[in-house]
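#lab-general

N.A. 3:47 PM
ok so I finally got the sequence cleaned up, no stray characters, all 504 residues accounted for. can someone with queue access submit it? mine expired

B.Y. 3:52 PM
send it over

N.A. 3:53 PM
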Amino acid sequence: MEAVPRRARVYVACVVLGALPCVLPVLPALPLTAAPGTGTPWAAVLPLAALYAGCEQLARRRFAGTGYPVLLAAAFLLPPSAAALVALPGALLARAGRHSDPLRRAWRASQLALAVWAAARAHTALGGHDTVAACRFPAALGCAGAAAVAFSLVLTALDGGIRATCAHVPLRRAWRGLFARTLAPVAVHGLAGLMMAVLWRSPYGPVAALLVLLPMGASWWAYAQYDRERAAHRATIRALVQAVDLKDGYTRGHSERVGRASMMIARELGMDDERVEVLRFAGILHDIGKLGVPTRLLRKDGPLTPEERRVIELHPEYGHEMVRGISFLGEARAAILHHHERLDGSGYPYGLSGDRIPECARVVAVADAFDAMTSSRSYRRPRPVPEALRELRRCAGAQFAPRMVTALVRALARHGWHPAVTADDDRTPAPAAPPEAHTPARSPEDGGARGTGGAAGAGGAAEEDGAAVPPEAAEGAAARPGTSGAAVPPESGAAARPGGSARR
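B.Y. 4:20 PM
back already:
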């Protein structure tokens, strides 16, 4: 497991130690040593364990879904320790994500063993084994429901703990919404598991129980198709972003970094996971409209004329038109359209102000300006993170939403800023700098000779890729191609050019 914090490793070790007492009671009673009719019912444990392992292997190949119905059937059929053992082979043999890491496998096996053990304990305590054997309904449904709740509670508790220790999610939000999202699918799997258990105990035997997996397999296959469709959408988004990167070389990596910063702000604001994902899409696609801007304007070395600036300032509307038919983007489409609006109403394309600017657009605006200021350029070094944050605070209330700026400051204080380099970059990354002055490996989108973001109007504050620049600073600022960030102070010695408001 890469870069796993020490406290997360300690947490996983504690979960593993907690799972051992759940399965140890059955291990001495091996099939060759147990007396007939006593000990662990290996005739049920071994087939169920093999079936679960097979389901997990199919799930890894996206031919089927999770094997939870098999685990819950084990909880309804077996003693708690024997039921917990069913989960171990499948969890330990399956690949853990993209990497075959022993720590990941141990975590998953221990988590499932504890969850199945708790479900079996709840089911046994309510007399569920008798109701399954006698096929008494609705009593069997009540016992199965209690087991499903216990199963979900353990999964939720352990998942929240790993989010807090490994993903650094604040404790007050680590468990938020997890139980509701876990219980619904587990309840469906519990019904399938109950049908398997009833058929297993029926005169038709285990072979009939396998028939329950056929309709479940059909639903899993349908969901896999939906998942593939979503993967195709994500691939399309990545292709669009790469097209922008190729058209405007200064922006390489910028879109992904803005997406990452937008996620950090959204999480700090307490948004649910679905909105966080939408904000990530918004950050990644915020400049997709530059595909509709003539390349000669994006790469122009000299100052833009007012007419050229107006053309570039159309890119939010171009981007919105490009993605308006992609329904799963949701409010990300509004962020693409309005991420250059300013709180004081001097932004574009519609001059919205205050709360009339969609919340998602206010998030992306802050993320966009932050990455622009902290990204390297051929003519200047990136601003240190603390300096960029001071500039964002200075502009909060006029250009940026103070709440979003505060959220970014808190998120960076907790996680730091470590932008990644995308694989298609052919430049050598700069060496890593200390967290307070981290140097991103690649230059962002902005576009001094790229996008817009220029002057808000005659006599108004100019922008250098997002950060407001007072008129007196803008006059002394070098308006170079690709200028981004905040004001370049007059004393820096940079020669101002006519019409030199920076462009994004």
